[in-house]
Amino acid sequence: IMAIMGNSSLIYRKFVVALILAVVVKLILDWYLKTKSGLLLRAVGDNATLVTTLAKDKGNVKLLGLVIANALVALSGAVVCQEQRAFSSTMGTGQVVFGLAAVIIGTTLFRKLSFVKATTAVLVGSVFYKACIQVAISLGLPANLLKLATAVLFLVVLVLGNKQKGGEDRA
Known about the structure:
By secondary structure, the protein is mainly alpha-helical. The protein has seven helices and no strands.
């Protein structure tokens, strides 16, 4: 019984640490995106010509965005390696798909809610995506059907997002 309680306590502690780390990084990122440099970074994605007219080099701004993205990737990789106490060169396989899924799901689900920040939407989208994958694993789906479940999840979210978007255009 103590081994089970110790294991659940460990899982709980890992969850709390991950939650705290995610919220801290989200708050720092939200704060940064409100600064002049952060606004330029957001603008270069929408309208690179605007950044150039503001007498800023759009290449440097894009480079800063890549630096921030790679720093966040390094932080997350370090946390995962610390948690697992091991490293494998294949640990990152599928993480691009996971990242895109989090962005697509989060932004689609919270498209109509203007008070929800994009970082919050992506964070909730990542939790939703992982929860769906966990449900599929709990149901005992084999790996090839797990990919099918992921594809169906994307399809459902995109169709629901397009229906919401279509409803806005007609009204």
